[in-house]
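ok trying again, last paste got cut off:
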Amino acid sequence: MISVLLALLTSASNATAAVLQRRAAMQARSSKPLELSLIADLARRKVWLAGIAMVVVAALFQAGALATGPIALVQPIFIVELPLTLLLSSLVWRRRLAPRTWGAVALVTVSLGTGLAAVQPSGGTDRAPTGTWVLALIATGCFEFALIAAAMRVRGEPRAALLGLAAACGYALTAALLKEAMAALGQGAAEFFTSWQLYGTAAAGIASLFLLQNALQAGTLAASQPMLTVGDALISITYGVMLFHEHLRLGWWLLPEIIALILIVVGYVEIAKSPVAAGHDEQSGRAPSASDTPNAPASPDGRWQTSTEGPGAR
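nice, full thing came through this time. structure:
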């Protein structure tokens, strides 16, 4: 199916952007949450700009995927982004993956395929009624406000997790808006450029990117990435059902679907705990030294970090 292929290409592009963005985010000087100067600092770094270029490539692939398939099918495929990011990181920084990590990658991949085969998303429309959109936007705004308010009350890993989930909700909304904008494109250029969903896509995407950069800087991959990717998949499925009336296979199929979801989460946690994801060599178990990574910045607690992971945009 063309939508599946395009979704996989989106994940590969996001994985490349993830490595580049994470490297830039960990080198940024700003440490205050939700500070606009963070983006200004990142924009001066070529590695971050290269990551943004890959985000644009990913957006083009995603637009094609959403135009040809249900959002409840396309968005969950992005779960493979973290395994792809980890594999790319291990190649770029020449870090070896332990057998346990390889097993977690296989677990996530197989569980995702099994889960999608069980739920079998299908059907749906390309356009949602305006009234339904209004309700969806109100619910999304309230959810985002609650997450960001909670994130401002904590620090470290909890903040990274909450901002990661906020970014996930934003990316899911971006996908839903993009799907309807692509449907408008099918009716002509005039319809496309006068569609409010097109400009909503840009606004939601920029806001999500801002939340993502802060999630990356607030804590580790283990805190932000599972919330980002799994949250994006589940919220996107909700948008697909509520906005576009997409169909999911339920009944006794819920059992294998729930099992697959649990296994995906287990695999994700194991991958996120990988020393490679944290900037360590898996077989040596040590953090890279300054001589190993001359461009790596020191973290606030004095440990050297490498930027070998992080979610991309979607």
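cool. Residues 280-313 have pLDDT under 50 and may be disordered. The two ends are 20 Å apart (CA to CA).
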